[in-house]
Amino acid sequence: xxxxxxxxxxxxxxxxxxxxxxxxxxxxxxxxxxxxxxxxxxxxxxxxxxxxxxxxxxxxxxxxxxxxxxxxxxxxxxxxxxxxxxxxxxxxxxxxxxxxxxxxxxxxxxxxxxxxxxxxxxxxxxx
Length: 127
Prior knowledge:
Shape: globular
Strand content: 25-35%
Largest sheet: 6 strands, mixed
Oligomer: single chain
Number of helices: 5
Number of strands: 8
Strand order of the largest sheet: 1-2-3-5-7-8
Radius of gyration: 13 Å
């Protein structure tokens, strides 16, 4: 793993396959300010280009409305071309489904329980 960029709530790094990895730290609640910091870090790691993102949400405790809207919106779409969200617990599944259902991300976004399936989907988008 390349050396990750660390913000309060996430570890972020770019792999050789061109997919940015975003790992939510354990037992974290994400605020709007955290979401903004994470997307700035994604932009830095991707060198200002749009990258597909593999987002590991396992361990997430919660996310406020402002963060959900930000991740679903235009600022995120400027730096991410697609997002595969890895979930595991009933709580992360509920947060993921809530995000997907209410916030309607403007980039292709899907929930996965398998990292392998998530990567296959991202690579299949050809971005």
